Amino acid sequence: MSKRGQGEGTIRKRADGRWEAMLTIPQDDGNSKRRSIYGKSQGEVRKKLTEAQRTLDQGDTLITDRQTVGDFLERWLRDVIEPNKAPSTYRTYAGLVRLHLIPTLGKLQLSKVTPQHVQALIRAKSAGDLAEKPCTIQRLRDVLRNALNQALRWGLVTRNAAALVGPTRYQRPEVQPFTPEEARAFLVAVSGDRLEALYTVALALGLRQGEALGLHWGDIDFSSGSIRVQRQLQRVKSVLTFRELKTARSRRTLPLPASLAATLKSHRMRQLEERLLLGARWGDSDLVFTSTVGTPLDSRSVLRRFQDIVQRAGLPHQRFHDLRHACASLLLAQGVPPRVVMETLGHSQISLTMNTYAHVMPVMQRDAADLMDTFLMGSK
Question: Which among 162, 65, 168, 72 is positioned nearest to 113, based on CA atoms?
């Protein structure tokens, strides 16, 4: 046993040549645990011990070499994902971690996870509860890879085992939004509906549901004919909350079609009438789209109402998000450059736009061939 400095804990050199420090960790029940910290030299162990003690003094959870995958993933969700990702992303990650990753890999020591463990996870899920969900299996591997990248940055592992396992092959489901005829039939079906303007905004501008529900009247400039998309309405732990948009490209200013501007003006007049009738009972907000009492709209209620209209109109089943897909498909089919469509949707990369709407490419290619044919015939 070597002599200890003040606050160093117990440091000794083991028979296998490694250095070990013993740290006392208080528990919530008033007891304490002794935990070992290892290093290749006395100085390395002393440094790790000092950092661990500082972590404990700050009230944080101690990360150690022997922590399990389950412990690490819970901390990663709490400290990295929840504060930095959209609530919907956090819920997706948390669901995959707690339903699939922790039950399978949770008890393994984090530093001992191998590509074989990850491959076995994928094989078991492919033959089990996710057999018909290859997209979910791929997402599961991506979540684990992202988590282990953080572990790598924190120095908890020497390699990312998930990154060494190839991605799962699956056929991306083809987007099937409204056709032009179905889109027109939908607009006829919503004509006069209290939320007609909401559906029209989503279809005409390709706004995400949260972006549309987060619009304020101050975001709409009727004089210049433009609309600013700069926030979203999201449900965070059962509370409707306004949040920043995901990326810088998501924050965008879009030109406002004249017909949509007219729809929005009519909607504003209807909203003012509702506000006058309720008086002081009207919720104090500048939101474009509200409930009948002026409060923010709940996305689940909007979805139910939207799908009810679609069903009654005899149209194919759609998600609200499919209005965004319909917007992009209609723009591309009419010859709008993909770069412009990308900017309209707020995509971060043009490859995302093109990969998502690859089904429109044959129409664009046919139009291009027809234009070339017109040119060639005119030159003869």
Answer: 162
| Cα angle value 223/209/273 (rounded, 5°) | 55
Specify the residue for token string 């009948």: 292
Residues 6+ apart with CB under 8 A from 162: 115, 118, 141, 144, 145, 147, 148
- List Cβ neighbours of 173 (8 Å cut-off, separation of 6 or more): 135
CA distances to 54, 82, 249 from 73, in Å: 22, 12, 30
The residue among 339, 347, 345 whose CA lies nearest residue 326 is 345
DSSP E strand boundaries for 163-322: 220-221, 226-229, 232-236, 239-243, 252-255
Task: Give tens-digit pLDDT for 331-373.
Answer: 888 888 888 889 998 887 877 777 777 666 666 656 666 655 5
pLDDT tens digits, 73-124 = 999 999 999 988 888 889 999 999 999 999 999 999 998 999 999 999 999 9
369: left (phi over 0), alpha (psi -120 to 50) or beta: alpha
Token digits of residue 76: 């990663």
Amino acid at 347: H
Residue with tokens 């988590």: 147
The SS3 call for residue 191 is coil
Rounded to whole angstroms, the Cα distance separating 88 from 232 reads 12
Q: Which residues lie below 8 Å from residue 114, measured CB to CB, with a gap of 6+? A: 161
Q: What is the pLDDT of residues 205-226, one digit of tens each?
A: 999 999 999 999 999 999 999 9
Band (pLDDT 50/70/90 cuts) for residue 64 is low
Q: CA dihedral defined by 214, 215, 218, 219, rounded to 10 degrees? A: 120
The CA angle 120-121-127, to the nearest 5 degrees, is 90
Q: Which amino acid is at 102?
A: I
